[in-house]
Protein: ABC transporter ATP-binding protein
Organism: Pedobacter ginsengisoli
Amino acid sequence: MDKTNAIISVKELVKKYDDFTAVQGISFEVYENEIFGLLGPNGAGKTTTLEIIETLREKTSGEIIVDGYSVDKDANKIKRIIGVQLQAAGYYPNLNLVELMELFAGLYGVDVKPMEMLEKVNLQDKAKAKYKALSGGQKQRFSIATTLINSPKIIFLDEPTTGLDPQARRNLWDLIIDIRNNGTTVVITTHYMDEAEQLCDRVAFVERGEIIALDTPDNLIDNLINSGFERSKEVKKANLEDVFINLTGKEWREDN
Ligand SMILES: Nc1ncnc2c1ncn2[C@@H]1O[C@H](COP(=O)(O)OP(=O)(O)OP(=O)(O)O)[C@@H](O)[C@H]1O
């Protein structure tokens, strides 16, 4: 696995909404086959940046290359090699999961076996269930399965675990790691720092449209400690989430 081959290259990206500059000339690379996290406060510019890379939003200036293709010249080629989560509103609530998979496969013009796609995200038992009858975790897993329909080289996940219980989050982490291990690059945004620490090979912190740090979670934490940082409270060897998982188990559950 060549970790230093850039599959996404963003140079001096600027996005203005009228006179407000949401993205202020950021540059970064995402390496092939890594899980890359975009972190930062609400309104920092993460979704804007992702949607410009996904060719869904126009940039103001800058250069973006995705797997050798420029967003300016080859947006359609980029669309073919990426997977993007749809907003839930895009799912017809009265179709079952197999029917929805067939619909999406038709839209992409690819031939996939719906059951195989559902198996990838452990939803084979829900094949005949309607989307609206799924739990929050199952909905997220289904939407991740739809990103894989066109066998993409890169998938983009915008806050995929927001609102999920601890087990469902961990199941989703395992799933995302599996997807990476099978050769797909993953770009993810999250507001959960424990999640970024567990999941991401590298993270970029975005603040007011600028990248203020970019490194592996380990290096960022070590740098902070080396600068003399100490937590104000002694950290115990377990936290309340460990208690939750210990009490309720961490295996796949019917409803998460
Ligand atoms: N279509 C738009 N028109 C005007 N301003 C916008 C538009 N979309 C986003 N913005 C503004 O751009 C800034 C960045 O928004 P963006 O959604 O990219 O942030 P974010 O980092 O993804 O935030 P969150 O964590 O809340 O999802 C915000 O101030 C937002 O209000």
